[in-house]
Amino acid sequence: MFKEYFVLLLLGHILGDFYIQTNKMAQKKEKSLKWVLIHCLCYGSVMLMISIPIISLKIALAVLVAAILHLVIDVIKFVYILLKTKKDKITLTIERNIFFVDQALHFVCLFGITYWGIRSDVSINAWKIIKDFLEAAGVSEGLTISWVLALLVIHKPANIVIQKLLMIYKPESNDEEKKKDNNAGRFIGTVERVTMLIFLSIGQYSAIGLVLTAKSIARYDKISKEKDFAEYYLLGTLISTIIVIVSSFII
C-alpha cells in the first residue's frame, strides 16, 4: 500500500513540477512571487486531477497538504534566490545545489504525507470503470501507474537532472552548435533510457551494452579528439544509466 500511495503522489509531483511547468515559467518564478503562486496553483490542480479516480476526504486533504508544502518550499527558494541575486552570488554550482535541495525537500514531504496516509488507513480505490477496463486489458492498476511514472521520470526530469549535474563540466561551444547538441542529445537520451528500461523490465541486461555502444559509435570521432567532451559524454552516459536503473525499481 505504501508504494502505491507514494507512486501516485510522485506521479502528480512529476507532472506538476516538470511537465506543466515550462522553462519560461521556471525563469519567471525566480523573479516574481506571482509566478510562484501561479505554479503552485497549477501544481495543486494537477495533484487533484491525478487523485480524482480515487478521491476521498483523506486523499483530498493529503493533496491539499502536498500543495501547501510545495508552496512553502518554493517561496523559501524564491526568497533565497532573490537574496543571492542582489549580492551577485548566483553561480552554476549554487544554481545546481538549489535545484537538488528543492527536489529533495519535495521528495521528503511526499514521503511524509505517504507515511501519514498509511498510518491513517487511507484506502486507494479506483473507479469501477477504470478497474474493469484494466482487467479487460489484462494489466494491474499498480503496474500501469508505475510504468507511466517510470516513463515520465526518464524523459524531461531525467534530462533536467543530467543538465544540472553536468552544467559546470559542459565544454564550451558556439550558441548554434550548443542548441543543436542539446536538442538532439536530449531526444537521443530519452530514446536510450526508454530502450534500457524495456530491456531491464524483461531481464535482458546484456542488451543494455548494445545501446551504449551504438550511442558511443555516433560520437566516436568527437570523443577521440576532444578529451573534455569525452569526459562530459561519459559522465552523462553513466548518470543516464543510473537514472534508468533507479526508475526500474518503480516498476
From TrEMBL:
The chain crosses the membrane at residues 6-23, 35-55, 61-83, 98-118, 194-212, 232-250. Keywords: Membrane, Transmembrane, Transmembrane helix. The keyword Membrane applies. The keyword Transmembrane applies. This is DUF3307 domain-containing protein. The lineage of its organism: Bacteria, Bacillati, Bacillota, Clostridia, Eubacteriales.
